[in-house]
């Protein structure tokens, strides 16, 4: 049996300098708005504003952590961390989802309390501040729109900011309703709806982050697709020992054995592996370790 081993490193290209600028702009915009919204929430006695401000503060933390995760992707591999610190981007994505869960728990608790015992609020302050929130969150979300498919942390930031813009719309609606009806229970009701929206928006992020942290096959890749591509090569009889996992939120890796139908030259094996790895990159797999072996034959039968 003949074995040939090859390990390929092809780094996913992300314009880190551009992305860094976007994150810094997003962090500054949202942090300033958080300060304004917290102050307005206390002045107007609005739980909806305070809960939205708390959520926005968690988004500032999420943006900061995501920025840190992307910076870790640029760190070079060493003898101890042979893939560098890429895995940290997945763990940070998971941490971001957990932070949101904690924030949601606090909002839910206070919403129930305020719903049982409604308190008067200043609807005019709610409407003006939440309107500013729509603009700030929409602009922040647009910063990441073009790059949202490049990395799970960038996508997470985009989704959070987009949801924030929608939540601010809900807060404006609550302010308008209260101004006309004086139904103060609308404020904690909107706050509770905000909580549900947050959970729905972050659930996929939590699930994907947890899955990737356990080295599951990334959801955009199917093992059957890899098998199909391999068997399209006339020299390949079988592919087995397939392992696919994410080494970061933007890069995936694979190890596999290719079983050749018959012996071929070393150059032909090298060409086969390189061509196969090019096909894998089209499937979203940037790092490939491929081993080849010859099918064992006896008379007219091959195993």
- Rg from C-alpha positions? 26 Å
What's the mean pLDDT score? 82
What series of H and E elements makes up the topology?
A: EHHHHHHHEEHEEE
| CATH hierarchy: architecture of the largest domain | Up-down Bundle
The number of domains: 2
Please give the count of helices. Answer: 8
Helix fraction bin: 55-70%
How much of the residues is beta strand, in percent?
5-15%
Low-pLDDT regions: 1-12, 298-303
Largest sheet: 4 strands, mixed
Spatial strand arrangement across the major sheet = 1-4-3-2
SSE class:
alpha+beta
Would you count the extended β strands for me?
6
CATH homologous superfamily name of the largest domain?
A: Cation efflux protein transmembrane domain
Layout of helices and strands:
Layout: E1 4-9, H1 16-44, H2 47-73, H3 87-116, H4 123-145, H5 152-181, H6 186-213, H7 223-231, E2 236-246, E3 252-260, H8 266-282, E4 287-294, E5 297-298, E6 301-302
Parallel strand pairs: 3-4
Antiparallel strand pairs: 1-4, 2-3, 5-6
Helix pairs in contact: 1-2, 1-4, 2-3, 2-5, 2-6, 3-6, 4-5, 5-6
